[in-house]
Amino acid sequence: MTDEASADQGPTAHTLAARERILATLPFDDDADFEDADRGFLATLEPAVLRRPDGHTVWDGQAYDFLRDDCPDTVNPSLWRQAQLAARHGLYEVAPGIYQIRGFDLSNMTLLEGDSGVVVIDPLTTAESAAAGLALYRAHRGDKPVTGVIYTHSHVDHFGGALGVLTPEDVAAGRCPVIAPEGMAEHAVAENIFAGAAMSRRAGYMFGGLLPRTPRGTVTSAIGQNIPAGSIGLVPPTLEIRETGQQQIIDGVRLVFQLTPGTEAPAEMNIHLPDHRALCMAENAIHTMHNILTPRGALVRDAHIWAHYLTESINLFARKSDVVFSSHLWPTWGTDRVVNFMSLQRDMYGYMHDQTLRLLNQGFVGSEIAEMIQMPPAVENAWHTRGYYGSVSHNVKAIYQRYMGWFDGNPAHLWEHPPVESAERHVDFMGGADEVLRKARAAYDSGDYRWVAQVVNYVIFADPSNEAAKRLQASAFEQLGYGAENAVWRNFFLSGAQELRHGVGVPQNDRPPASMLAGLTVEQLFDGLALRIDGPKAWDLKLVTDWHISDENRTHRGEMSNGLLVHYDRLDGDGLPEPVATFTLTRLTLIRTLLGAQDFPTGVANGDITFTGDPTRLAELLSVLDAPDPAFSIVTP
Of 187, 458, 460, 615, which is least packed with CB atoms within 10 Å of its CB? Predict the structure, then answer.
């Protein structure tokens, strides 16, 4: 490979050979998924584009029309098949009285017809996509009011569009209960606030946010096509489900809940509809392998408990169900097929967990186990357990991390140099950048793209101005992306290649929506502030402030010392030191003030804030807050 030929030339002979092996291995003549994905189709939007009144495109189903063609050589044919299935969009009948909106969003919205209206399960990510889905439903099933909303779990693509199907006034008046698993709101806010900037940046890679929708760009996100670019909100639940077996009747629809905390989300639940013989599995069983640790970043999930709850679901509900549907992708019909689908999903997570633990107890580390594990043939050859979203490699390493942490026990890895310093030393030991690139080009020509990516990364981190290294690395990433069966891996590889060739793109909106911020508890707000303290800058700052939250009738104290912000509720007569200032305000005013949405003097002037003591000391706290960087470097230092 010459440096001049390092621009994207399409798939190499090695990538094409791997493609042929996929075609020869998997049962591409099995069309059952296509029949299921099309079953019950009623209508879709014409044209298949959703825009706001200002012309902003929220969702564009037409962007994926190229998926109607035969698989090109730039996409793994197994992933192309999944993309074709995931790209289907419109209103579908799942069973009498149960309908789904699919393909308008990353997730599905399910509508249960009740006595007087319709109960919505998982109102998508944005208000615009949810409203469009509800309008399509009403156009074909009548103008029914929304009489209940259910969030299956705490991820934003399952609650963010609530304001597209209900109003806060309906909720306040009791006309529309909002039901969620216990702790859902707290987990939803925490995940999107504490590490929100870093997660958002990595999510841009994971979902290919800045990649073109073409056969050389992003073709799918595997569980749906992509995230719509609309308005996200959070309407807090009015009723929490606290135990498995809990029943509720909403607008005449009987619902039986199964709590599954620690599976795909820290707060999640499945729902059985016994009168419909239908089972909603939330995101615990869908038509792909899921992530034990999402590459965008989150807490490691528990594969063991995930498998356990799937066993419980099978025993409680599967044999009493004629159809299983989920909050992503398409349903499965027939009791025997339902049981088989859920059993293979259970076996997939349970096998990965148990075999990882078996091998780590023999002394193997995560990266070794990821190369050693071979899934059982029945799991390997089922389309719905293929690694389109999660992967065996990433999941095994996540399971290892959950039990053993990042350190593999080898003292040589206990105190390694950080990336830039390590890269400089590696390049020097390997004979300099030119020699590394000469050998890397030979490795590229032999098809060893994994090795190219590893060693050329050293050159880039040692010298980010080395354009030849960046072009070669981009080419290696492209080959890895073109061959990837996993949509997330493809998007990561191709996003990295694009960034190496063209620089960091403009990030998508990285700030949590106002309604999400409004859901912060006082404790979460101060926890979030503590994570933004510039420690060295704040070493010498000693500051005690009290915050009387008038609408909660309590006083919360913040103490700064040694670069640490601690906080707790202050009790009357507790003998604590006097604060430098006490501020009285509502929780929402506190949030707006400390997060910079409202100027402090303005709040005082309009009467939202009153105080005693010296209010100017507040500026000292605000001066040591660091701002997250929503466009930090990933493939360069």
Answer: 615
Mean pLDDT across the stretch 41-47?
96
CA distances, 485 to each of 97, 219, 371 (Å): 36, 11, 16
**Cα separation values, 465 from 342, 418, 506, Å:** 51, 19, 21
Collapsing DSSP states into helix, strand and coil, what is residue 307? helix
What is the C-alpha to C-alpha distance for residues 189 and 168, in angstroms, rounded to an integer?
18
Helix (H, G, I), strand (E, B) or coil at 64: helix
The rounded distance, in Å, linking the Cα atoms of 136 and 207 is 26
Per-residue pLDDT band for 597 (boundaries 50, 70, 90) equals confident
β-sheet bridge partners, residue 582: 546, 612
According to DSSP, residue 381 is labeled: T
Amino acid present at 304: H
Order across the sheet with 581-585: list the strands.
564-570, 554-561, 543-549, 581-585, 610-613
616 token code pair: 């100017």
More confident residue, 164 or 524: 164
Contacts of 503 (CB under 8 A, 6+ apart): none
Q: In angstroms, rounded to a whole number, what is the distance separating the alpha carbons of residues 493 and 474?
A: 8
Read off the pLDDT of residues 151-166 as tens digits, 9 standing for 90 and up: 999 999 999 999 999 9
Q: Which residues contact 287 (CB under 8 A, 6 or more apart)?
A: 33, 82, 85, 326, 328, 329, 330, 383, 384
Q: Which residues pair with 278 in a beta bridge?
A: 273, 323
Distance between CA atoms of residues 233 and 167, nearest Å: 11
Cβ partners under 8 Å of residue 405, min gap 6 = none
C-beta of residue 45 within 8 angstroms of C-beta of residue 98: no
Quickly state the pLDDT bin for 4 (edges 50, 70, 90): very low
For the stretch 173-196, pLDDT in tens is 999 999 999 999 888 877 767 777
Give the separation between CA 396 and CA 28, rounded to whole angstroms: 27
User: Among 444, 439, 495, 451, which residue's Cα sits nearest to residue 13?
Assistant: 444
CB atoms within 10 A of CB 546: 20
Pick from 257, 247, 225: nearest CA to 153: 257
Per-residue pLDDT tens digits for 45-61:
999 999 988 889 999 99
If we measure between CA atoms, which residue out of 300, 303, 328, 333 comes closest to residue 318? 333
> Cα–Cα–Cα angle for 556, 197, 124, nearest 5°?
95
Q: What is the pLDDT of residues 220-236, one digit of tens each?
A: 999 999 999 999 988 99
Q: Is 553 helix (H, G, I), strand (E, B) or coil?
A: coil
